[in-house]
Amino acid sequence: MSTAKKDAAKETIETVTAASNKAVQDGFERTMTALNDASAFQKETVDAVIASATVASKSIEEINSNTLEYAKKSMEDGVTAAKSLASAKSVQDMIEIQSDFTKSALDAYLAQINRNSELMSGLFKDSFKPLNDRMAAAVEVMQSQR
User: Fold this and answer.
1) Which region, left, alpha or beta, applies to residue 30 given φ > 0 means left and ψ of -120 to 50 means alpha?
2) pLDDT tens across 74-106, in order?
3) CA-CA distance, 65 to 68, in Å (whole number)?
């Protein structure tokens, strides 16, 4: 084999080897970047789940506290109405006391239902927001990979 052919073969092998090494290195760097991006994405997702759970637990605490306050007030109002009924001077007074108590108890109950509805609505809206944001980010990532 002539020297020119040996030099051409050597140059071809070196070119192929250099190109292969470059391709492997580029592939490794892209893989490492993708792994780092995936790790960061997963961390942000875990953070979103924690934020969602935190908001949900605080909202549930508020709902429980609100319900306990209502129950306590309702019980106190019932005791007050019972004392008023016991001290009524006539049947007419008893009917008026009972009627007033029933009206105020119903008004308080409806206000409580409205308040709990607002709190539940806020619970779902606020606790799902971090998760919805992560879903939007995931869709964005998937679309960018097309």
Assistant:
1) alpha
2) 999 999 999 999 999 999 999 999 999 999 999
3) 5
Tokens of 4: 């020119």
**At a CB cut-off of 8 Å and minimum separation 6, what does 80 contact?**
none
- Could you say which DSSP state residue 137 is in? H
Rounded to an integer, what distance in angstroms lies between the CA atom of residue 133 and that of residue 7? Answer: 60
Q: What does the pLDDT look like over 43-73, one tens digit per residue?
A: 998 999 999 999 999 999 999 999 999 999 9
Q: Contact at 8 Å (CB) between 93 and 21? A: no
Between the CA atoms of 73, 59, 113 and 77, what dihedral angle is there, to the nearest 10 degrees? 0
- Rounded Cα gap, residues 81 and 94, in angstroms: 10
H-helix segments, the chain: 3-86, 91-144
Region of 78 please: left (phi>0), alpha (psi -120 to 50) or beta: alpha
Helix 3-86 × helix 91-144 angle, to 10°? 180
The number of residues in the chain equals 146
Average pLDDT over residues 20-43: 85
